[in-house]
Amino acid sequence: MTQTLERPTDGVPPAEPAVEAAAPAEQEVLRRTSSRTREDVLALVGAAVGSAATTWLFYTIILPAEGSIGFVVAWYLVFVAFYAALTGLTQPRQVVIDRVVSTAVIAAPTLVAFALATVVLMTLVKGLPALANLNFFTDDMSGVRAQDPFTRGGILHAIVGTLIEVAIAVAIAMPLGVAAAVYMSEVGGRGGRLVRTVVEAMTALPSIVAGLFIYSVFIVQFGMPASGLAAALALAVMALPIMARASYVVLGVVPGGLREASYAMGAGKWQTVWKVVLPTARPGLATALILGVARAVGETAPVLLTSGASTFLNTNPVKDPMNSLPLFIYASIQSGSPEMEERAYAASAVLLILVLTLFLIARLVAGGRRKSR
Amino acid sequence: MSGDVLAPPPASGPAIEPGEDDDVPRRLVVRHSLQDRLFVHSVRGVGMLVLVIVSCIGVFLGIQSVPTLDHYGFSFFTEFRWLPSQDVIGISAVVVGTIEVALLALVIAVPLSVLTALFITDWAPPGLRATLIRVVDLMAAVPGIVFGLWVLFVIQPHATEVAHWLSKYLGWFPLFHVRTDVDYPIWNQAPGYPSYAGSAFIAAIAVTMMIFPMATSVMREVFSQAPVGEKEAALALGATRWAVVRTVVLPFGRSGIVGGSMLALGRALGETISVVLVISQAFEIKPYVLESGTSTISSLIASSFKEATPSQLSALLTAGFLLFCMTLLVNSLAAMIVTRSRGSQVTEL
Q1: pLDDT, tens digit, for every residue of A346-371?
Q2: What is the pTM of this model?
Q3: A123, part of any domain
Q4: What is the residue-wise DSSP string for B275-307?
């Protein structure tokens, strides 16, 4: 008994005990797909080092060098070839294919993660000069010229504008969205199906078209001035179908058994919805809605068309133009001055942090109740 | 039997016991009249309000396109120039540009999404899975303008080099062709030599970052529903991880791949701000995606709504309506494919 158990572990040196396989592996010589042997590790390291050296030699010494992207791509290709060849020395063809595919499967998320990391780093590093000054958060840009040092001017007006616009948009879209979702999922019927179809269709509405709608109806035809309210309306129009559908999906996950139990206890529809369905769905609803808010915070296109852009702090959504973070970033980039560009980076960092905070809140709200399938 | 909080059971409960007609009365609907009726009606009212608001947009856009078609006629769809000052307006170039950018983004994003989704469901250690899912979700919340900024200042300098290389060595392939002297150094942007910056290809990179999370999460969800029994059966037969994926996960998740890609396409068509930041606007129908200058419907709207006369505004609205129809079509197809793939999975209790 002990003999047979020990032998494979002897022959297959320090493998980390994989969870899934390994257990049924006894006397037979297995293909060892999931437990990593020393040979596997050495093949991997050897391929990595060998390919790096080969690529470096050929890419920079023998062939004319051309950029870092080309180097990484060439290295990856050479690495895959080396790794496949090394594995092929000892393993059957299936394992070679498996390894080659694995390199691709691991490379793709790595590439995306790298991209995402550079996004975050870029905004933080390039925004740092502006972010380091406290007045960046407490001042607005009125009377500040583009070339002024970072000790003058800030984005208070944009932060406040974003908060006001999003607050109004959410105040409009969230109750309507949730109520419509309740109608679609709890009342249903032919009307419910109709609403669902139309709402689902309208989630396809591109945000710029929502902005253009508000612009041409409220600003051009009704003569409403470009203001925070118009921007909020555009955001609301964009967010309403999204929130309604997300809430509908969440309500649909509430187990039907709970509703039936409630009805069986003699509760009415209203009581069932209010006391059973909504409390059950609350974490999910909160998550869906907060994610909707995060989306609205970062939308630029509708705001671009509707709010105008002020350089001063304006807390009145119905008068005068209002600025917001995405719009401020956009306008600063378009201005072309290097200082404004750095301000744009700093503002993007603030925007990212805002979105991240919302996201974390959503996670915390949903945290307690994670459904394991 | 007893101990009910609500009124109805005591009223009907004892009455049922002696008689035989057990399941006839049950007047639940009648008993809960007022409160429930109020609730149902008010919720229906809100639902209808939402319906009206939402369909108003569609109808409004549709109506607005009538004067445009009156004024510009059919040439609105065939003309590629956008010269408001000469009243020559057409959207064929922007439609082609929109589709070009979206498809290119799809070509980049779909392989990445499939591989990442597979990594999350089948390769990543179980402890890491939840974190990865969260990161992908978080990426979906990153504002488009940040990605636009990133592409403009971080990616573009490298991407132009890649584009230059591609056009230099693979220029015989029509897609990579650039109508310029490829041996001309790319930093020298003399007039007459189109540079590589602001091309459809580079805009597509920005759009890729926008659609990748969405496609990945749809695919991941479908992949994770692949039948465990079949996966284990394949493992038991000695299949490698890739063999399991190829024989079980991918066939099962094929509709997820297609549906996720189409949802992403719907999003890519309407993506505005990152494209506006990156591209250099040019109204021209061309298959040369590496060459500087392109235009999409949304970038057209964003850049020219301000100085539009009423008739041009309605032309923009028509373009917007067309864009909406395109995304609507793509999204509905995607939704159909994805829901069909879920099938019975929805009714979990």
Answers
A1: 999 999 999 888 888 877 877 655 44
A2: 0.81
A3: no
A4: HHHHPPB-----S-TTSB-B--HHHHHHHHSTT
